[in-house]
């Protein structure tokens, strides 16, 4: 029984050490107050968006998640709460023949322009993603060029998402 007791003591000591290390890591993470920022939003349930006479900021009003509340669903704009590297992605869809596309802006500067020619008249989509270093207060948004259109409904064909990879 003595060797069994010794083995159990060793296991208990190892578990205790692991528990202490885990507790220490949790305390460190809590003391750093790690910020959590992530959002996903669908464009609309109403079908077609556009075409407009001028370039228009897209309002992705169907918030799926908004951890950290950095995405403003009324304005369609994400505002960086801290300096850091963020990851953004989007998918946009349409079903009529013609061009569809959109810009991703950081503040007032275009970063990405996606263009897709839907020459078959069925559902088509375009997607892209980017990692951006942002300063606190920087804004990211999607914009629909003049004369372009998109489509969305309750199935969320058109989405905009982003999250903080790490603070700087």
Automatic annotation (TrEMBL):
The keyword Secreted applies. Residues 32-168 form the C1q domain. Keywords: Secreted, Signal. Gene3D superfamilies: 2.60.120.40. Residues 1-19 form the signal peptide. GO terms for cellular component: extracellular region. Pfam families: C1q (PF00386). It is found in: Secreted. PROSITE patterns: C1Q (PS50871). InterPro entries: C1q_dom (IPR001073), Cerebellin_Synaptic_Org (IPR050822), Tumour_necrosis_fac-like_dom (IPR008983). It comes from the Eukaryota. SUPFAM superfamilies: TNF-like. PANTHER family: CEREBELLIN 13-RELATED (PTHR22923:SF102), CEREBELLIN-RELATED (PTHR22923). This is C1q domain-containing protein. It comes from Seriola lalandi dorsalis.
